[in-house]
Amino acid sequence: MTVFHYPLHIAIKQDFIELVKLILNYKQLFNMKIEETYTKRIALHIAAGKCSIEIISLLLEEGQVEENQIDLNGHTPLDIVWKLLNNLDYEFEYREETLKLMLSYKCKFSSLKSLTEFYTNLLSSFRRFESNF
């Protein structure tokens, strides 16, 4: 199978924020909702997979992406970013800021299981944060 990478997806994967901005400025020339053929992920999934709050913010502000698109594995962008932020040692403020941003744009979890994990782990995240003081 031939894998084709789209310019916006490449820019996001490489953290080329200025190129992402340029592509978004010329969005009429690009299909912002295009999916990767092998994962069914859109640009927001890719940005979520990199936990790039700046790119996530740019994509959501443009309003040209489907914030609750489900990929081949059944995950929304919020599922992806939550799983990564919960498993990595990001600063608490960064984690909170990223989640607040995505939730403010009505990003949703793909399932009740994901939502339950979010609330279950949220308490332990706050406890880890408090223990640092």
Automatic annotation (TrEMBL):
It comes from the Eukaryota. InterPro entries: Ankyrin_rpt, Ankyrin_rpt-contain_sf. This is Ankyrin repeat protein.
